[in-house]
Amino acid sequence: MRSVGCILPNMPLHGVLAAVWLFAGCTDDFNQHLAYDYLGDGVHEVRPVQTPALTDVVRVDGELGPATVGGRVLDVDGRGIWQDGAPVTLDYVVDDGVLVPLDDQGLMLLSFYHHLAGARDDVAARGWQDDMDAIFPVTAIAWIPAQMADPTGPIENALHITEQTLEVSNFSVFVLLEDANDSIPLAGHAGIARHEFAHAWFQVLMRPLFNGNRVIRDRRALNEGFADTYAILSLDDPMAIDFDGRDPRLPHTTDAYLESEDPYELASVFAAFAWDARTLSDDADRTLELTIAALQDFSDFLSFPESNETTQQFGLMLYDQYATEIDDPALCEMWLFRFPDLVGRCGR
Ligand SMILES: [Zn+2]
């Protein structure tokens, strides 16, 4: 039950309300905040959670970087520069030790921060602390209200953007676009948060791709495929990205998507083959580790200037990594099914 007396002094308070607050003897102490939490099987619920990475919950600031409202990329002499938005100060009440944001913006920023911190801690615990130190803190986690969104911009609900030169990344920003469809709050979605997180990680894992001169075909599909793969394996849930037909249990194959301009389609083949390996091994954690190893193999492969680079060949490296631990003819069957135009494995 919400106690009206617990409205905090940082909100506009008038005499009567202040008297109620004092009279009620309320405390503004909280050790949890409301957020969209993921229950599995595609189901989210708003409930109290803890996010230790949020060192300043009210300003939505902490170890991952600061949240902002607004912000945009400016073109300065052909170079992208991130122009900061405004700092955040949540409107909220405290109810029984739980910070309750009073608007959608607050709930989304807290939810995204919570999911992002979970992904970072998960990956650090698996031994990739250095990669996490390379990603965080980011420049900003920016909430873009609908009226500020660029109408010519990409049709996305959340994204990770960056501009990287040979040596440095000038900025790294998670952008959360206010969701027009209020039935699926995507910025509060655990699978989407992990997907966007994985784009930031992909950039660290695949340095050759971002060093300017290593252009491969369909690199976007590789990036999106890794992002979906990380989401489904780290949550160990094929429903983690439960829309746009991206369920990894569907019969995604490369030949169906050869003419496609949509990078998510080829991406879905990589994620589906990863889920095949997870199903055969019954081990999501190990499958994720092997997928990272395959990505590093692909990164090494790109360092040969004469290599004939197509993203599909990532399918070979996935097979080779999974085959080191999955001794089951079904792995070959799934590989032949998913990648009908690749040769060099499984008798083809
Ligand atoms: Zn993506």
Strand order of the largest sheet: 4-3-7-9-8
CA radius of gyration is 22 Å
Helix content: 25-40%
| Annotation, overall tally of beta strands | 9
Largest sheet data: 5 strands, mixed
Could you give the distance between the termini?
Answer: 64 Å
Shape: globular
**Poorly predicted ranges (pLDDT <50, ≥5 residues)?**
1-25
Domain count: 2
Strand content: 15-25%
Tally of individual helices: 10
H and E string: HEEEEEEHHEEEHHHHHHH
Unique bound compounds: zinc ion
Q: What is the mean predicted local confidence, pLDDT?
A: 84
Helical/strand content category: alpha/beta
Give the secondary structure arrangement, pairings included.
Blueprint: H1 15-24, E1 32-40, E2 43-49, E3 67-76, E4 79-87, E5 92-95, E6 98-101, H2 104-125, H3 129-135, E7 140-144, E8 158-164, E9 169-177, H4 190-205, H5 207-210, H6 219-234, H7 263-281, H8 284-302, H9 314-323, H10 329-338
Parallel strand pairs: 1-6, 3-7, 7-9
Antiparallel strand pairs: 1-2, 3-4, 5-6, 8-9
Helix pairs in contact: 2-3, 2-4, 3-4, 4-6, 6-7, 6-8, 7-8, 7-9, 7-10, 8-9
Bound molecules: zinc ion.
List keywords for this structure.
four-stranded mixed β-sheet, 2 domains, binds zinc ion, 348 residues, alpha/beta
Structure description:
The chain has 348 residues and is of the alpha/beta class. The protein folds into 2 domains: 29-193; 206-348, no CATH class. It is 38% helix and 18% strand. It has helices at 15-24, 104-125, 129-135, 190-205, 207-210, 219-234, 263-281, 284-302, 314-323, 329-338; strands at 32-40, 43-49, 67-76, 79-87, 92-95, 98-101, 140-144, 158-164, 169-177. Strands 4-3-7-9-8 form a 5-stranded mixed sheet, with helices on one face. The chain has a 4-stranded mixed sheet with strand order 2-1-6-5. A hairpin with a 2-residue loop joins strand 1 and strand 2. Helix 2 (104-125) packs antiparallel against helix 3 (129-135), helix 2 (104-125) packs across helix 4 and helix 6 (219-234) packs parallel to helix 7 (263-281). The longest helix is centred in the N-terminal third of the chain and has 22 residues, at 104-125. The protein is globular and about 70 Å long. It starts with 14 loop residues before the first helix and ends in a 10-residue tail after the last helix. Zinc ion (ZN) binds next to helix 4 and helix 6.
